[in-house]
Amino acid sequence: MCETVTRLETDQEIIYMCPFSGAVKGKVLITNYRLYFKSSDAEVPVVLDVPLGVISRVEKMGGASSRGENSYGLDITCKDMRNLRFALKQEGHSRRGIFDMLFRYAFPLSHGLALFAYLNQEKFAENGWNVYKAMEEFRRQGLPNNKWRMTFINKRYELCDTYPNLLAVPFKCTEDDLRKVAAFRSRGRIPVLSWIHRENQAVIVRCSQPLVGMSGKRNKDDERYLDLIREANDTTKKLTIYDARPNVNAVANKATGGGYEGDEYVNAELVFLDIQNIHVMRESLKKLKDIVYPNVEESHWLSSLESTHWLEHIKLVLSGAIQVADKVSSGNSVLVHCSDGWDRTAQLTSLAMLMLDSHYRTLRGFQVLIEKEWISFGHKFASRIGHGDKNHADQDRSPIFVQFIDCVWQMTKQFPTAFEFNEHLLLSILDHLYSCRFGTFLYNCENARDQHDLRSKTTSLWSLVNSKMDLYLNPFYTPESGQVLYPVASMRHLELWVNYYIRWNPRIRHQQQSPVEQRYKELLALREEYLKKLEQLQLSDSSSSYQLTNSTTPNTTSSTASTPSQQYTHLQTPL
Amino acid sequence: MFSGKPIKPTFKCYLPPAQTDRKNSIQPPIRLEPEFLPGEIVVNDVNFVRKCISAESSQGDLWGRLICTNFKVSFIPQGPPPKQKSQLSHLLLGQHDISLTCLEQVVTVNDTRGKRKVLGSNQKLKFNPTELILYCKDLRVIRFCFDEAGPESAKKVCLAIAHYSHPADLHLLFGFEYQGLRYHKGDLVNGSTPRGGIQTPVFDRPSDWDREIKRTGASGWRVCSINEKYAISDSLPEYIVVPVSLTDQDVKQHSPSFSDGRVPLWCWNHRNGSALVRMAGPADPLTQKKTEQKIFTAITKSHPQRREVTLSDLDKSLPNIQDIQSAFVKARQICTLDPFEESEERWLSSIENSRWLEYVRTFLKLSAEIVYNLDGKNVSVILLEEEDRDLNCVVSSLVQLMLDPHYRSLNGFQSLVQKEWVMAGHRFLDRCNHLKKNDSKESPLFTLFLDCVWQMTNQYPAAFEFTEFYLTVLSDSMWIPLFSTFLFNSSKQCAQLLQ
């Protein structure tokens, strides 16, 4: 790694209160990017290397007069399922320096400083900002066509300041229609196309809730607009509207001016998906942390896990996405929204697209999916994660994106050969969701990113990933385009993602690389070697007896130019 | 263990049912003949039976003929056979077949009269059944409806199934009929087909034990043939391994002190010299202390470093066979609930409440502790259990599986099962309750063992030669009485009955 880290302060004897191996003496180094701890005792080699971005809260524990061993020090709460405690000597305000340093550089925005991503000088072979170009992605989907057109109405983010600047809308609607619809949709987030099915032309459209309010307002333009969306697909008799919220919450939203589509939308049917809001998800993950960190609640593990409801939420999100995918693949256009259309909506559309479109299951395609459905459509990463912000109790924070990645992980577990990327990619994404080393997950929307010159001043996470793709590839991947993946969203099949949620616990055995994967890679290498040998033999053979080679050349040699994954298809099927 | 079963509910359960409601039309029957094994005969059959596929709707139901033979219950669906054979297709049974030994409970229902009766053998039925529900030991629940079938023949088939699934005598199990026709004692006596020239040792002869002693480097141990013709114990194998310092006479003399004459049995030796031994509780408390001391001394002598032995009393640290059975019954109930949504909401806590996984964990944990004694502390361990025929089987085989990679090969695993279960006298007949005579003796210890193994294969995916599929087949084969391996209570019983 060639990142530049400005040295700020070093060298102070400190005790890391490791919950697993007890109190460990060592030295700590704090830079503007990380906290680094190394035990001075060689027999207990404990190393901590924590990007400051994962810190959500730094507290002083104990006072100058508190008694008891190691009762004076710092308590650090992290966003990534762990806490860190350090104890110091009580004399001479020994913790003040470290505390100030941490507080300042873990929360730079609260101190008028720039996020580390703006200071990072790392250079990579590939520029990850080029991974996603909205127009290219629309073209890949076969757009524009005679039913859908591109519009630049949001070029200066005037129609909707949290949307991207390029939108796909029904061909028949005018720019004026769009403005009228924007007035009736929360924060101007009008229904726009996310994905179109190549064969049956059914679409996934996303938006925010309609502004129905207590009085039950109607908007003819919105009604007509939804009907245009429906008409754009011949086989859609009724447009299915998936409201991600529980029914009662949707009703309650009327009080604040929101609501849901009523009977006046004659050619539509409304389905509530019962997914809870960001606050419920936050509390659920907090409960999960309580039972896995620092110690795993062993005696009543399953019922404790159940009482966090984390897996139940995962199940609802997944089964919602399954319904969306199933509707679309049977030739029915759908519209997905929640309240603002940037949390649950992003989860549902992106997961449904992952099920429907094998392109998104490749390493690059998955990056496109995240860039498109999450980043460009204004999932509020800055508010949900709280990058560089000291306000740890902010009610806007919520692990919605973590939940999405968990759902993806559940799918990779159920379809081990369907994804080109591996678990390591998912872990890396979550690590850098907090680290602030890359610009990828910073800010709430494109408008803000443009204002802060994000793409010219910071590096993309995909630069790191795509410069070392080998690390993130799944050797078991067998490309099968056109296949829709329907995971089983049943409690019987959902698992806790131990390698993420319990990864700090050394007692939970986790393998960086499974032996099966290792063996498989060896076999692949062996096969490659033999194929080369075969090719060589045939070459030397053909020079001596041309006739013979011609008649006996097996098919494999003629395809040596094709990608390795294609060649290995046969080898993979028995697995 | 449950994941090997075909899972019926799919994601479709989350989708509203499709609108189309096709009427099932009954077509004139084509001849619906099942495939029979040699010696298999049809007892009774009935046509126009509907096999229920889903609890929610009758849409996917199959129509066909229901047959009861002396070996299985067979359902032959009308119409062309499915194009694709199901992935876990069976070599001996069809997709819709259930061997009679696999039946746990036969229940007849009359919908209109609100009646329900669990059927045993030789029983009468006062109502015409409209429905037959078969609860199977392999976690299937199968429902047949007789709405279009002749009431009398439906009733007859139900009674026949109930009767033939409760054999009055071990000889009436189909295996005996089949055995006589297909296999002859002699050249195929060693069971499985040779695999790469290696046969699975069955430990019915001294050479098998000798080879095991050599393989593990157990120089302090020898094969003893004092139990030939089952002279000192009915439940021990004819050849056992004992410390070299004990003479045949010593063994014979010590034998009466133990339950059923079961002198302590050598199981396995660690490379470091420590041995794993299994032992039954005392038959005669008076002489017990003295005998035990002598045996312990002999085992200590067999250890190259003369280490004291460690005794592990499994009865004190593990659930008993009734606990295990009731946990299994609960787990089975949760797993077979139909529609499955009912168990979905509280799935995790229900599974926890069944205690099945807790028991799996307890067995694995205790075995790992014993591994630590043998491997880390280099001391010989004696597993003590009242009868030495249940808990000891599970723990001794788990310990060996953890320590010795040989047993993680397919052949090694089979020899382990043969050595620690079949030859050690695990009461398969009673624990499987094949004769359905004594429910209190029923307990799924072997299933528990297989679950523990499955957990290990999950944690060490590259360490085992065999697959999850193999474990499933092994489990299923317990309920197919064609193989003698899991049919008897002891090798003596097996030898007597197969003569």
UniProtKB/TrEMBL annotation, chain A:
SUPFAM superfamilies: (Phosphotyrosine protein) phosphatases II (SSF52799), PH domain-like (SSF50729). Its EC number is 3.1.3.95. Residues 543-565 have a biased composition (Low complexity). Residues 308-354 form the Tyrosine specific protein phosphatases domain. It is a peripheral membrane protein. InterPro entries: GRAM, Myotubularin, Myotubularin-like_Pase_dom, PH-like_dom_sf, Prot-tyrosine_phosphatase-like, Tyr_Pase_AS, Tyr_Pase_cat, Tyr_Pase_dom. It is found in: Cell membrane; Cell projection, Filopodium; Cell projection, Ruffle; Cytoplasm, Myofibril, Sarcomere. It catalyses: 1,2-dihexadecanoyl-sn-glycero-3-phospho-(1D-myo-inositol-3,5-bisphosphate) + H2O = 1,2-dihexadecanoyl-sn-glycero-3-phospho-(1D-myo-inositol-5-phosphate) + phosphate; 1,2-dioctanoyl-sn-glycero-3-phospho-(1-D-myo-inositol-3-phosphate) + H2O = 1,2-dioctanoyl-sn-glycero-3-phospho-(1D-myo-inositol) + phosphate; 1,2-dioctanoyl-sn-glycero-3-phospho-(1D-myo-inositol-3,5-bisphosphate) + H2O = 1,2-dioctanoyl-sn-glycero-3-phospho-(1D-myo-inositol-5-phosphate) + phosphate; a 1,2-diacyl-sn-glycero-3-phospho-(1D-myo-inositol-3-phosphate) + H2O = a 1,2-diacyl-sn-glycero-3-phospho-(1D-myo-inositol) + phosphate. Pfam families: GRAM (PF02893), Myotub-related (PF06602). Residues 543-575 are annotated as: Disordered. PROSITE patterns: PPASE_MYOTUBULARIN (PS51339), TYR_PHOSPHATASE_1 (PS00383), TYR_PHOSPHATASE_2 (PS50056). Residues 566-575 have a biased composition (Polar residues). Residues 128-501 form the Myotubularin phosphatase domain. Keywords: Cell membrane, Cell projection, Cytoplasm, Endosome, Hydrolase, Lipid metabolism, Membrane, Protein phosphatase. Belongs to the protein-tyrosine phosphatase family. Non-receptor class myotubularin subfamily. This is Myotubularin.
Automatic annotation (TrEMBL), chain B:
InterPro entries: Myotubularin, Myotubularin-like_Pase_dom, PH-like_dom_sf, Prot-tyrosine_phosphatase-like. Residues 203-499 form the Myotubularin phosphatase domain. Pfam families: Myotub-related. PANTHER family: MYOTUBULARIN-RELATED, MYOTUBULARIN-RELATED PROTEIN 10. Belongs to the protein-tyrosine phosphatase family. Non-receptor class myotubularin subfamily. This is Myotubularin- protein 10. It comes from Ataeniobius toweri.
